[in-house]
Amino acid sequence: MDNSVVRRAIHKLVWNVYIDPSTFERRWNRLIEQYGLREHGWLSEMYHRRDEWIPAFFRDIPMCCLMKTTSRCESSNHLFKTNSSSFNTLVQFMLCFDTSLDGQRNQQRLLHHTTETTLPKFKTSLAIERHANDIYTRTIFFEVQKEIYKSLIFCYIAGESKLNGSVSYMIAHQDHRKEIVNKFMVCVF
Fold this sequence. Notes:
Shape: flat
Order of helices and strands: HHHHHHHEEE
Strand content: 5-15%
Structural class: alpha+beta
Radius of gyration: 22 Å
């Protein structure tokens, strides 16, 4: 068995921010059986701690999937490694720090200019996509646009109920195999 295949399968499952805990459990058990990993000590230990690190278990925290702490640290480290060295004096470090900040500010100005002076290609005719363009930077807009577009393909209204003047919709979310991975209740008052 090729370890890279197993690693890719585990990575694809673990970092899927769209599934709920029960879907994760079902797919994890299928994966463990498929690759004969029931007795793997490290995987068993990590599985027992799954609620501490698997996105499916803390997905109800708002905006939890946008950026992980390790990503922020790696981004900062990369910025300083690009413009600095461990052999720098304090004065050299501060000059490198200022150069890094100037570069970031310049990049931010360029991105802001692009957001303010151009229009992206819209993928839908939905008003929410245009609204997203108005309120987000272009980079974030493209991420939101992908989600809006995928919602047209992978989501549908599975049920509707009315009670005391409000309407509740059950929204089903499917994966690419058309398997339902989540259901959400949305209330409109």
